[in-house]
Amino acid sequence: MIPRIIVTGAALASLLGVAALAHSGATGVVKDRMEAMKEMQEAVKSVAPMMSGTAAYDADAVRRAADTFRQHSGTALTESFPEGSTDAPSEALPTIWRDWDRFEDLAETLGVMADGLSRAAENGLHSDGGMMNGGAMMNGGAMMGGGSMMGDSSSMGSDMMMGNARGIMQMSAEQIGQMPADGAFAMTTQVCSACHDRFRKDDD
């Protein structure tokens, strides 16, 4: 059984903070992908309060967010990063093209997570009795060895943040769809965090 994954405030702040990127001066593919990232950040922002229990849960809103992630995943994501497209205000690092296979894997994994999140939308939240694995409740502890969405020294996170997300990448949309929605959401945002951590310039 997969234990529940914890969505932390620090993790969401990191993801949502990217929404403040200055798009002034962006053109062409850089502008297009920055707009795509903004759409995904807005999707996170739209459902994060539900996942933390500070807003009423809305399965349709979760599915809409999942659709946004799916739309910008996989080939749609990788094709928006032609080699060398690092002109300001892009925050993409050249590491993307040096480690293209890892970037491509994360892009594909985002699509799987999005499909799983869409399926999990009907399950509700763990705190509300959301079920997984045919009715078994998810227990305490963090996903795959502990830690928060952004990770710490003892968490899956340090591996995840280095792009070594083999555990998550091996999961199917069907498996993720058996989880409470907050668990599926946290896994989806972990993929975003992993990609940002490795392939995006640090905020000053």
From TrEMBL:
- Which key words tag this protein in UniProt? Signal
Q: Which GO terms describe its molecular function?
A: electron transfer activity; heme binding; iron ion binding
Top-rank taxon of the source lineage equals Bacteria
| PROSITE patterns xref list | CYTCII
Q: Extract one GO BP annotation from the record.
A: electron transport chain
Question: Which segments cross the bilayer?
Answer: none
Q: Which InterPro entries match?
A: Cyt_c/b562, Cyt_c_II
What protein does this entry describe? Cytochrome c556
